[in-house]
Amino acid sequence: MSTLSRIVLAGPAGQLEGMLHLPDEEPRAIAVVAHPLPTMGGTMENKIVTTLAKTFAELGFATLRFNFRGVGESAGEFDSGNGELEDMLAVIQHAQEAFGHLPLILSGFSFGGYVAARAAQHLHPQPHKLVLIAPAVGRFAMPHVPHNTLLIHGEQDEVIPLNDALDWARPQHLPVVVLPEAGHFFHGRLNQLKQIVLREFNGCRL
Fold this sequence. Notes:
Largest sheet: 8 strands, mixed
Radius of gyration: 15 Å
CATH class: Alpha Beta
Shape: globular
Strand order of the largest sheet: 1-2-4-3-5-6-7-8
Number of domains: 1
Structural class: alpha/beta
Order of helices and strands: EEEHEHEHEEHEH
Number of strands: 8
Helix content: 25-40%
CATH topology: Rossmann fold
Strand content: 15-25%
CATH superfamily: Alpha/Beta hydrolase fold, catalytic domain
């Protein structure tokens, strides 16, 4: 179980709206989860985003999901990833001020994966781990990511083709977890997605 509360924090374009998932025990890490493309209806209530947040809280992480600028109660307007990067960095700073410098996990789905990967480049030290679900390779200029990144993609992704993800991952020698027959939104596969993330962190040293 976890405790859920709405938060509002100061962002670079005005207020940012978020949801904080707190584990029952003392947090052993911080996780920040970014949502898919706002111009296509992406919000922090996306089912993959909420699945990730609940999974991280179950693992004992203080977890923040949030709305990018212009979404929900977050101020501002869509900025093609640049302003959204600033939003995510502001949320990370807020989380670290609230919970101390615990190990940091950054995660995102689709466009949110692109923003999370960029945010990782701006942090020193780098996050403990990136968890990217169907990141928006081919649609945005995805940076290279650390070798221990967990990358999950659907075999039949109709938005970000698996071949595009493989082409991006290949020169980095980055493993890709492929869910056979899964599409971009992992319909009917959310529990499987959760189990993959749980296995990645259960028993690992943070």
